[in-house]
DNA sequence: CGTGAATAGGGTAATTAGGGAG
DNA sequence: AGTGTCCTAATTACCCTATTCA
């Protein structure tokens, strides 16, 4: 493997997450605002989501308690 | 374009499944609750159903009676 | 630096969940 | 046992415009 690997996680756009859950992109935004989904913001304010987390939620795997 | 397509299984809303089966959405919910139909939950608690599974049932795939 | 698509906002209808009774 | 309907509360979908993304 390469010597240096920038720690980059695969991110998903709101539209992609919405498609996977069969919901409206706005709904994904509400989940992020409600703290149900980890959101990473671009410098312009747009949201990106962790693919691993989304897949885990879809599979029905309970997310880790942050407590 | 690269492979920017997260493997997402086509899902159906309760209303869509109900229409396909010619039943009330509440009935579809009962099927899901009874485990007769695989249901995927949104983060808000709403159910989504696998299109492949629904179509298989509609297509008339023998349920392989165990008797 | 323009162009077209996507997203963030906010507000208002439409679905859905859940229980209960017929 | 299985289904359709009534109810309330919660969640989601569609409307708009301005901003950001690619």
Describe the structure using short key phrases:
homodimer; 67 residues; alpha+beta; Multidrug-efflux Transporter Regulator, Chain: A, Domain 2; three-stranded antiparallel β-sheet; DNA-binding
Describe this structure in words.
Chains A, B: GO terms for molecular function: DNA binding. Chains A, B: This is Excisionase family DNA binding protein. Chains A, B: Residues 11-67 form the HTH merR-type domain. Chain A is an alpha+beta fold and 67 residues long. Chain A has a single domain (11-59), classed as Multidrug-efflux Transporter Regulator, Chain: A, Domain 2. In chain A, 39% of the residues lie in helices and 13% in strands. Chain A contains 3 helices and 3 strands. In chain A, strands 1-3-2 form a 3-stranded antiparallel sheet. In chain A, helix 1 crosses helix 2. Chain A is globular, with a radius of gyration of 13 Å. The relative contact order of chain A is 0.19. Chain A binds a DNA duplex (22 and 22 nucleotides) through helix 2.
What is the average of the pLDDT values of chain A?
Answer: 88
> SS-based structural class of chain A?
alpha+beta
Give the overall silhouette of chain A: globular
**CATH topology title of chain A:** Multidrug-efflux Transporter Regulator, Chain: A, Domain 2
How can the largest sheet of chain A be summarized? 3 strands, antiparallel
How large a portion of the residues of chain A is in β-strands, by DSSP E? Answer: 5-15%
Number of domains of chain A: 1
CATH class of chain A: Mainly Alpha
Oligomer: homodimer
Rg on CA atoms of chain A, Å? 13 Å
Number of helices of chain A: 3
State the total count of DSSP E strands of chain A: 3
Major interchain interface with per-chain residue totals: A-B, 17 and 12 residues
CATH architecture of chain A: Orthogonal Bundle
- Straight-line N-to-C gap of chain A: 35 Å
- Give the spatial strand order of the biggest sheet of chain A: 1-3-2
Which stretches of chain A of 5+ consecutive residues score pLDDT under 50?
A: none
Helix content of chain A: 25-40%
């Amino acid at each position: 493997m390469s010597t240096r690997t920038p720690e980059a996680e695969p991110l998903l756009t709101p539209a992609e997450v919405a498609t996977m859950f069969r919901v409206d992109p706005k709904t994904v935004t509400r989940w992020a605002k409600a703290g149900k989904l980890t959101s990473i913001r671009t410098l312009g304010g747009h949201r990106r989501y962790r693919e691993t987390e989304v897949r885990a939620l879809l599979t029905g795997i309970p997310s880790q308690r942050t407590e």
